[in-house]
Amino acid sequence: MTERFSEQLNNFDEQNPLEQLIERLKPLHSILSQNSYVKDTTTRLKRIIDDADSQPIVLFIGKERVGKTTVINSLIGRNLLEDRPSEPTRTNTFLKYGDEEYIKAVFLNGMEVIFDIANLSLFTISNSESAQIIRKHLDYLEVYITCELLKKVTIVDSVALETGANNTAYFSPALLQRCDEVFWVLQAGSPATEAEVNFIEKLNKTGITAHLVVNGIDRVDGEVEAFLEVEKERYGYYIGEDVPVSALQAQEARKTNSTQLLIDSRITQLSQLMFQLIDNKQKKTRHTTERFLQWLERMRVEMNTIPAREPYVSAFEYIVQHQVDLHIDAAQLQQDKALITSFEKQYETVSKVFKEVQTLFQLLQTLESYSYLHDPVVDMYEEKAALYQKNVRDYRKLHVDYMMEYGQLEKLFKKQTGMSLAFPLEESELSSIVSEQIQTLNRIRTECEQKLMSIKKYEQFILEKLDSVQIRLNDLTKKQLTTIRNQVKELEAQQIRKQSKMISYANKLAEFSCMAEAQSFLKDAIEPLLLERVLPIKKQEEAYIRQTIDHIMTVDFSYEAPAVADSGEMLAQLNLKEKYPLFELRLSEEDIVSDIPELPGIIEI
């Protein structure tokens, strides 16, 4: 048993048995409330606690049009509930005391909504489309009104008994179980049906003794006693007390302030009997104990089915499989770390791809090395720039050839004439060899001129397109960096999805840790109270209690907490954009244009 409840449990000695039981059930309910998958079972336990803590609950049942609602209105002294014969009660309604009057609608999903008291008929008798939609999801109503009688008792106006085949009748077992006393209403002069008798007999066999209220005695002219005798001969051994009343006379007596008419209605005898019955604290203690034992059986079934149903089974299997695969996860983590290192190196390389590019030649080398820097626009620019550089190289080579030929011509001319070479030359001064070299020089010069024209053409193109291509290349670089960051994000997302799945399953299993806590609390705190003869526990029930709680204890909710391989911290620290800022391409015209020697002049003769 957990320590958080030990101090509270030490204070039970001076409490009466019912209070001791309820005070021990409250922490049990608190433990189970941590698990949303046993919500219905937890809600049922809460109702046991609330019903035991509140006034006794008295239920009025019967078939349609016997006057259940009218009898209840007579008891509370006001026509609160609509009692039209053509519109039967369609919602089980708990009447409780309240300093402020309002309606609390309790829906099947556990949600509670407050409404104004003026909307009561919408829930109880209205057959409108909106009312039908609301009641489809409604469990029951709690109506809080200022009424002295309700300070001592809660009264339930119920829907009519449902009759079925073979003279059977049905009523909500859950509602019957909540009530301390049951009053069965008959219309005077209208004998109980076979289905009703079978239902009352069935109730009696389950430990519920209904008390008979015969309504409408003002309509049978004093023959009510004879009617009662005949009815009691049929099923008297199944019922408890009987009270003949006239709800209509009681209502009329209050309207006219007639004491005699109120006496004739016998409604005060019904209220006195009701108070006499509910004053039996031992019966209430026994009733609450029985409800808890029934709940305990439900809890046993619930405990046994949890490990075999969703979401527990999937979560448990996933966690177990994860523990088996831990070495695989560790290897995967190492692979992920290596991949992250690779991504980081790629990012760094791409971010600096243009850092050292200061010339057209370096740009072309870079473009040749990285495929991500290509698209049709860049490819065309690269092609023209390559042709530009090829023509520059060709021009330089031709120029070198020209200068070498020119040097040889100078030497030859001086050797033959003894003079330095000067232009223009007289044809008479030229030997055939000199003439031939001059022709070679002029031919080379013509080739240089043609190359120079090509150079200017390509130079014009690459200069005009320089800015747009640089923008395009910087965009391609940014795109590549984004691709790498996205790859890192996808790896991170995979890790997050994996860890989230693990955390989700671990959290689901953690929700069931309270079941182990509940097991311990049942064994250490509840079982001793049930067996120490403080509560009205029958001898044969003691063995059942031990067996049931022992059975509950056999369900194993233990598991090894999962170890999660975490690469999240490393990913979080890998802020690539800040760590490796982009060096954009920033070439000027001077960086692009190659220096070339001037075109030689034509040698004229």
From TrEMBL:
Dynamin N-terminal domain location: 58-206
Highest taxon of source: Bacteria
Pfam families hit by this protein: Dynamin_N
PANTHER family: SARCALUMENIN (PTHR43681:SF1), TRANSMEMBRANE GTPASE FZO (PTHR43681)
The protein's name: GTPase
